């Protein structure tokens, strides 16, 4: 081996040692007992035993394959249950012509060069007429929009999960002391035993958010792909933290409070997709959702959950630990989101009450392929009149929840 090879090998060894040292240091910071646990406790003190089971790292790992299983169940439910149900209720599968592959035009769509001058330039580049370019752009846009039947199936699956999770969570927590007396949330922390029903409740909820994150890669790509991806990552991180730091009691309350309002939200969206025949039921369900939202998100959550985390924890625990401040900060950010979403709900209610043609408060809402077809839009910036008979009822009926689609389709109680 020559001198040059020895020098390269020595540099590689030094790099490997530096990387190993850095990873070991990061591992120590990540699993620092002083961050995760109250002062005076070590990981050995909170180890799980057959007599006194506690949260384990393996529970977090189990949620990943469980998320894949939930994803498979979702596909089965959507294809075998909600798709036939939607068709029987009048929704039709949308057949749109697929745009031919064209890298130049696809790049133009991504950069939004769709004004009149831009289309003229594109037509010259691909040697097409302006009409051909417009038709290609319309087909391309329609092929990427989810139809009402697809949205109905997605909301149907989430309605099923949220309903099942809420019923199971309520039955599980009914006999637990901290559901009725929040001072019990911190009693014995962090040496609180975890029963099998609580363990599975948490793991299934965590697995569900893993499935939501994974499903983004094969679902119809939405405008909020990257924000929602970060949203799911943050959710998984916070649920994992609350579990491993033995803050699962407050976590179960938060999950229960959020699941109940999501049930009515998804139900209202399902009725909305079914059209005018279900408008009264849709409006009534949205009203129930709004009332439930105000009670749980602006009432119980800040006045009960905040109290037990910001007051009771500092009174009952021997000393606050950094992880507790991290958890409380996340709860404050969550409440800020609640207030923002409440503002959007109130805007919709005011618009519906004062206008015959309410406008969607969320310009970023994702239209369906049926909406694109009915608008008969062209990519040169020309938009149909909002008073068009084909669109009037859709704008009126969709206004109740459309602004919530991007924020609440995967609304997480932990982010």
UniProtKB/TrEMBL annotation:
GO terms (BP aspect): ceramide biosynthetic process
Pathway it works in: Lipid metabolism; sphingolipid metabolism; Sphingolipid metabolism
Transmembrane segments: 60-77, 200-218, 280-305, 325-346
Principal location: membrane
UniProt KW keywords: Membrane, Transmembrane, Transmembrane helix
Membrane topology recorded in Swiss-Prot or TrEMBL: Multi-pass membrane protein
Regions of compositional bias (Basic residues) in chain numbering: 391-415
SMART domains: TLC
PROSITE patterns: TLC
Domain (TLC) ranges: 150-354
A GO term from the CC aspect: membrane
Region (Disordered) location: 358-415
Location in or out of the cell: Membrane
InterPro entries, per the entry: Lag1/Lac1-like (IPR016439), TLC-dom (IPR006634)
GO function term, MF aspect, one: sphingosine N-acyltransferase activity
Name of this chain's protein: TLC domain-containing protein
Organism in which the protein naturally occurs: Darwinula stevensoni
Highest classification ranks of the organism: Eukaryota, Metazoa, Ecdysozoa, Arthropoda, Crustacea
